[in-house]
Write a structure and sequence with these properties.
With 100 residues, the chain is of the alpha+beta class. The chain contains 2 helices and 4 strands; from the N terminus they run βαββαβ. It has a single domain, classed as 2-Layer Sandwich (Alpha-Beta Plaits), CATH 3.30.70.1060. One of its GO terms (molecular function) is isomerase activity.
Amino acid sequence: MKEFLVELTTTVPEGTDPAEVDRRRTAESVRAGELAAAGHLVRLWRPVGELRSIGLWRAADEGELYEKVLGTLPLWPWMTSAVTSVESHPNDPGRTAVTT
């Protein structure tokens, strides 16, 4: 599995029913848990005072990341993303073997 640093920003379309927003956010939480259990979502952070998230994700390749992982998030249609493929640095103190 390859690792990706993913920045996600969610923008709810103007005029969206608050009940729909709540429904999707609840479903998003459930789906994130499923993706974590499957080994795709490794870590997730929110910069202090901001409404975006930065996560460490794993997938076989970028195609799988978009199609079978990120694309399954209930809020995905409202998200913009920036994806960076990353690999462990030789001096990383937390370095673990990642299969490529």
